[in-house]
Amino acid sequence: MNNAKLVLNCENLHGEGLFWSKNEQKLYWTDIEGFKVWCFDPKNQTSVTYEVEERLCAFALRKDGTILAAFASGLAVYDLQTKERRNLSLFEPDKTKTRLNDGRVDRQGRFVVGGMDESGDGAPISTVIRVNSNFSIDLLISNIACANSICFSPDGKTMYFADTPENKIESYHYDDNGVSDNSVLHNCIDRPGVPDGSTVDVEGYLWNAEWNGGCVSRYSPNGQLVQVVNVPVPNPTCVALGGENMDILYITTSRQMMSNAMLCEYPDAGGLFSIKVSNKGIEESVFAG
Question: What is the pTM of this model?
């Protein structure tokens, strides 16, 4: 049975930005609306939380133990222990209704992160950017409503991306110059939900959390749906492959946009879920800056 099980009943308001630290053998993610960062040790079944003063939407580990933080308002170097924050740049300061959203480190150690429009209109007014090791910023994609599914092929030459309201996962040629030659990996109109966070395994297959779909879908590099993992809550948000053998699929979920009746029906919503799979993940890069 391809059914994920509850690992940690963390009741995240909106769990996101999930990744596995192979060096630490721990899982990291953010509860955006809960203003917390979570760190989970599956071996000891223990978790630690860090409160943050602003919504943290995505982040990457740095070699010195700090993080490159994609806060709602912009980018910063942040120390989870001391809460020391060094602001780098504001994100779209001329747009009052956008914030940073989904992000992931590429194979070269650069951080790619995209924004979203929070006005309720879902207008395609945001962007996807790349933060280089010297903290310079490249514009990769414009006219985005809600950036999601950012991840990279094993060789780093393909970037996957979804503008969630478009309900499709795209692939782009990716190199030092940015992105080009985009095509549709999978049109998700045949799926029960819409694409949220993704990761790629060693075979180059993409795992995608389906918001409002109660599942995670695995797609081949040519876009064929090959596997579905059921999640017993409506809103999976992000995925990571980790564990000692890199073969545990972890899934964050959300309680956001759920009525009291729905929360009673799905009391584990916002929890962390997992399932052992027959595929292995790729070690997550740390930010090179």
Answer: 0.97
